[in-house]
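If your schedule permits, I should be very grateful for your opinion on a structural question. The matter concerns a single protein, recorded as an amino acid sequence and a row of backbone structure tokens. Could you please explain, in whatever detail you think fit, how the structure tokens follow from the sequence? I set the record out below, with my sincere thanks for your time.

——
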Amino acid sequence: MTDVFPDEFNQVLIARIADGGYNIGSDFPWETLEDLQGHKIGGAGLNLNWLENAGIIPVSSSLATAYTEMSTGVYEGWIMFPSAWVNLKLYEPGPYYTLIGFGSITWHAMTINQDTYDELPPEVQTILLEVAAEYEQQTGSVNLSEYDRLVDELRELITVTEIDPSVRQEWAESLQDWVQRNADDLEGQGLPAKQVLNLVLDSAEERGYDWPVRYTVE
């Protein structure tokens, strides 16, 4: 799948970057999926699908405008990792942070222009790829190690609650049809989405992870 970078964008993929674990910050408390129905929750990219397919009103936005838009009622919450809730002071317009545990996603790519890369001496290319690989590893490690500390910091500032596992189960089940539709759409674009998704699911299980809902993609 990495061929899409040089083939379509004249870029070389050198690292993948993961975010911290996602939860929901909001200006109101909630305990069940039904509590969120009819509420507007901000997000970006793929995580908007987590909202829409669960019956919640998704609002596309960005962190650059999140504080103002939450303060003025454009939306009432955000799917967001704790580092943003702390560092951007989103806890001020959103004094409730609910740990639902969406987990981390890897959707950022670090690239270099193909022409620039080709002009580099081979030994420099090697160093660049080695350093980028180390950076990729460090982003994951730092996000993991910082997660608990940032949640603890939020506990001192606002109300932090952990959702009942049954709610996480219900939410995950509500996304089953979307997972299959999304895989079908990507396959239609010539991407091996089903193979990749099943590889990810299987690999996590082999490492001891127990999925709340084991999606089946055919």
